[in-house]
């Protein structure tokens, strides 16, 4: 199974029709809104998204702060 892609703008960039929301992959400071985060599982999920053709990871400064971006950097670096 591969994700279906669409063109974004007129520069030739393509993104999947669905992105991977990373909000629940790290906690909000001390709050575990979605339960305890599991770094290994989160990184495996990001890797699986890439295997399926994903290239759109949704994150925000609010998710951590910065913990989410650090997790993604670790996943991309692995």
What would you say this structure looks like, in words?
Helices cover 31% and strands 15% of the residues. It is α+β, with helices and mostly antiparallel strands and 78 residues long. It has a two-stranded antiparallel sheet. Strands 3-4 form a two-stranded parallel sheet. Strand 3 (20-21), helix 1 and strand 4 form a beta-alpha-beta unit. Helix 1 (39-51) packs across helix 2. The longest helix is centred in the middle third of the chain and has 13 residues, at 39-51. The mean pLDDT is 86.
List the helices and strands and how they pair.
Blueprint: E1 5-8, E2 13-16, E3 20-21, H1 39-51, E4 57-58, H2 67-77
Parallel strand pairs: 3-4
Antiparallel strand pairs: 1-2
Helix pairs in contact: 1-2
List the total number of helices: 2
Strand-residue proportion: 15-25%
Low-confidence stretches: none
Main beta sheet, described?
2 strands, antiparallel
């Amino acid at each position: 199974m591969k994700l279906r892609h669409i063109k974004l703008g007129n520069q030739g960039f393509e993104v999947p029709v669905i992105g991977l929301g990373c909000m629940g992959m790290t906690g909000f400071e001390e709050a575990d809104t979605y339960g305890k985060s599991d770094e290994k599982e989160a990184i495996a999920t990001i890797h699986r998204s890439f295997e399926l053709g994903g290239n759109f990871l949704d994150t925000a400064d609010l998710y951590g702060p910065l913990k989410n971006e650090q997790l993604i950097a670790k996943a991309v670096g692995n």
